[in-house]
Amino acid sequence: MSDTTPASTPSTVQRLTAEVIGTFILVFAVIGAVFFASADTGLLGVAFALGLSVVVGAYAFGPISGGHFNPAVTLGLAVAGRFAWRDTLGYIAAQIVGGILASLALLGILSAGPVFDLAAFTKASTGYDELSPGGFGIGSFFIVEIVATAVFLFVILGVTSAGRSASNFAPLAIGLTLTVLLLVAGNVSNGSFNPARSIATAVFGGEIALTQLWASIVAPIVGAMLAGVIYKAVFDRPAKLTA
Q1: CA 13 to CA 64: how far, in whole Å?
Q2: Buried/exposed code over 149-172 (b: 16+ C-beta within 10 A; e: otherwise)
């Protein structure tokens, strides 16, 4: 006898908790890889940690909350008409909490290690000039963060569009996109694309990280919202009937 009971709609608490846990997984994985991975893995290892953590989180929690794990994604989806504006503040707060909890867990690991140095958080923080691994300035930072986050949102909006036959593979496409984007932006900005991830490292990253945090919040949000506006205007318009 088959179960025909309709699936229940996740509650607000369930959705917000999913965003907390999903963002925790993302930040714990990517920043943990920066801290503890072998030097041989380099940027490629960190990029795969980011991409795979998003794949895992999206498959695990996407059906519950949509799997945003990123304030820029939440705002970009709202601009594109894919997410309710009334729910944005709750999601953003949950994502920030998840990221900070991950940083606290990593701080606990560092504190029990052979050398305890908060400079690890500074090195992992996103930014320009002193915080850019390649020494890039603020102009390069804004270009790469805005463009990369816009590309990320275009992919999300595209693979999650209604009627897509390969929607089950959407988390994989989204995770692989982040992997590629971090390989491009890593040496420029340390690869933010996510204000929650940037806040999570900046809170322990010292004065420089906190001073530059505004840029890591503004640039991804601009890129995401720009992508949301363009996608809605170009791809979500009703098709015109041809004679």
Answers
A1: 10
A2: bbbbbbbbbebbeeeeeeeeebbb
Residue 243's contacts (CB-CB under 8 Å, 6 or more residues apart) are none
CA 51-56-59 angle, to 5 degrees, is 120
C-alpha atoms less than 13 angstroms from C-alpha of 57 in its C-beta half-sphere: 31
Between the CA atoms of 136, 140, 146 and 148, what dihedral angle is there, to the nearest 10 degrees?
A: -70
Whole-model pTM: value is 0.91
Q: Among 1.20.1080.10, 3.40.50.300, 1.10.230.10, 3.40.1170.60, what is the CATH number of 12-111+118-234? A: 1.20.1080.10
pLDDT tens series, the chain, 243 aa: 444 444 589 999 999 999 999 999 999 999 999 998 877 778 999 999 999 999 999 999 999 999 999 999 999 999 999 999 999 999 999 999 999 999 999 999 998 878 778 899 999 999 999 999 999 999 999 999 999 999 999 999 999 887 665 568 899 999 999 999 999 999 999 998 999 999 999 999 999 999 999 999 999 999 999 999 999 999 876 555 444
- The CA-atom distances, in angstroms, between 238 and each of 83, 154, 162, 167, 233 are 19, 18, 13, 21, 10
Residues 6+ apart with CB under 8 A from 90: 12, 16
